[in-house]
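Reviewer 2 asked us to include a model.

Predict the structure of this chain.
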Amino acid sequence: MSEFKREHRYIVLKTSDVASALNSEQQRTLEHLCSLVEMKRRERGKDSAPALVVEHDWPEYEPTWQAIAARVAGRSTPGPLDSGGLPANDGATGGAQ
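Predicted model (structure tokens):
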């Protein structure tokens, strides 16, 4: 199994940030671009991509990464993470050293 690594795979914009950063025309343009991406996704046979966002300053952030790392490693419960956010080597899980 390949080593777990955190990846930047999504573009996430907080609605309140969009509202404060963009004017009405820009917001409509952004919505249009998002619709185009969603339409192309459907054309490729993919479903919508709803997601759960856990902000980095929330207490659930690191435990969420631990749970994902555990799932990728085939463990049912998350183990500790090293300083880089990768599964720590606990001697049994084969995590990062």
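Residues 54-97 form one domain. Residues 24-43 form the longest helix (20 residues). We have added this to the supplementary material.
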